[in-house]
Specification:
Blueprint: H1 17-42, H2 56-64, E1 71-73, H3 79-84, H4 89-92, H5 106-109, H6 120-134, E2 141-146, H7 153-164, E3 169-175, E4 178-179, E5 182-183, H8 197-200, E6 204-208, H9 212-227, E7 233-238, H10 257-264, H11 268-278, H12 284-306, H13 315-318, H14 326-341
Parallel strand pairs: 1-2, 2-3, 3-7, 6-7
Antiparallel strand pairs: 4-5
Helix pairs in contact: 1-2, 1-11, 1-12, 2-9, 6-7
């Protein structure tokens, strides 16, 4: 719907300007979140951070099309989607700081914990969607995954069950071209990942994952279809992971910088900003207000992550077994002895 330079495709029925402006605010916050989280990793405040820079439109759109009754099932790279859903960024990054829990109230936000194992969350998403259908609840589930997850058996099982039982779930595959270092052509011989939907008996749609307007349109339709009892949809978002897999990865070992540069011109944030500015919906003052809001979020994130709460080392052993094993008790006693002699 929007060309890379921000001009509207002739005949495209764009979302309302107010909605695109809302999306732009969320995109700016998502970009600033990625930048700030990366800095926190370099400062030693976070153990790891999988950046979604370049994919922010997918994540913002996934959150924007959901109602309060719906559920979001994210992966480890979908921090921006969770924040766009309304969860405090400090709580979202708690897990990546090394805490033993996901950091936020899953039931209150209707956002599942971020899943690190590939595709396991898709089965959970289908289970929630199927349960909602059995209970006649007005719930749609948005299940996020990457292209690498489509190579997993859990992906097949989730889509097959969802289609057979017409579960109200939308599968959004963020095809960012790499499963860590494995390029897409080494993962699948299919011309398009969206084509996989045919084998399961559900619609498959491929959309420009860097075009917020197109994403909103496609995902709106998929959510409406699921909510009307018509079953699941597989959406493939064509996007790109601009940064390394995580801070522990050297992307230069498996991809060329010229490839990265070619995708820089398709930046989702600049695209929607150009349209809003050209159409008179975003002036300098409004843009500054959006930037200030994002910076305030980043400042609150820095403060929250830097805060050191009380730590009880014995929590390491408290929730492993209902009744600690002899080995676990031995390890606990050893830790206690070491702590007693620590100056």
């Amino acid at each position: 719907m929007l060309e890379p330079d921000g001009t509207a495709v002739p005949g495209a029925e764009l979302p309302a300007p107010a909605r695109l402006l809302e999306g732009y605010r969320a995109l700016v916050r998502a970009r600033r979140l990625n930048e700030q989280a990366g800095a926190l990793v370099r400062q030693g405040r976070l153990a790891v951070y999988p950046s979604s820079r370049g994919q922010e439109a997918c994540q913002v759109a996934a959150a924007m099309v959901l109602s309060g009754a719906d559920w979001l099932f994210p992966t480890y790279r979908d921090t921006a989607a969770i924040v766009a859903r309304g969860v405090d960024p400090v709580e979202v990054l708690t897990m990546l700081r090394g805490d033993r829990h996901c950091g936020y109230d899953v039931a209150a936000h209707r956002v599942a914990p971020q899943a690190t194992p590939l595709a396991t969350q898709l089965l959970h998403a289908v289970g929630v969607a199927h349960a909602a259908r059995l209970k006649d609840e007005p719930t749609v589930v948005m299940a996020l995954c990457g292209d690498g997850a489509t190579s997993e058996g859990d992906f097949h099982e989730a889509l097959n069950f969802a289609a057979v039982f017409r579960a109200p779930v939308v599968f959004l595959v963020q095809n960012n071209k790499y499963a860590i270092s494995v390029p897409l052509h080494r993962q699948s011989a299919a011309a398009r990942l969206a084509d996989k939907a045919v084998g399961y008996g559900m619609p498959g749609v491929r959309v420009d994952g860097n075009d917020l307007a197109a994403l909103l349109s496609v995902l709106d339709d998929a959510v409406d279809r699921a909510g009307a009892g018509e079953g699941p949809t597989l959406v493939e978002a064509d996007t790109y992971r601009m940064e390394a897999h995580t801070n522990a990865d050297d992307a230069g070992r498996y991809r060329d910088e010229s490839e990265v540069a070619s995708w820089a011109g398709r930046d989702p944030l600049r695209r929607v900003r150009a349209w809003l500015t050209g159409a008179g919906h975003l002036d300098a003052a409004a843009e500054q207000a959006v930037a200030d809001d994002a910076e305030a979020m980043a400042a609150a994130l820095r403060t929250g992550i830097a805060a050191e709460g009380p730590v009880d080392p014995e929590e390491l052993f408290a929730h492993v077994y209902a009744h600690p094993t002899p080995q676990l008790r031995e390890q606990r006693d050893l830790l206690r002895a070491e702590l007693e002699v620590t100056p």
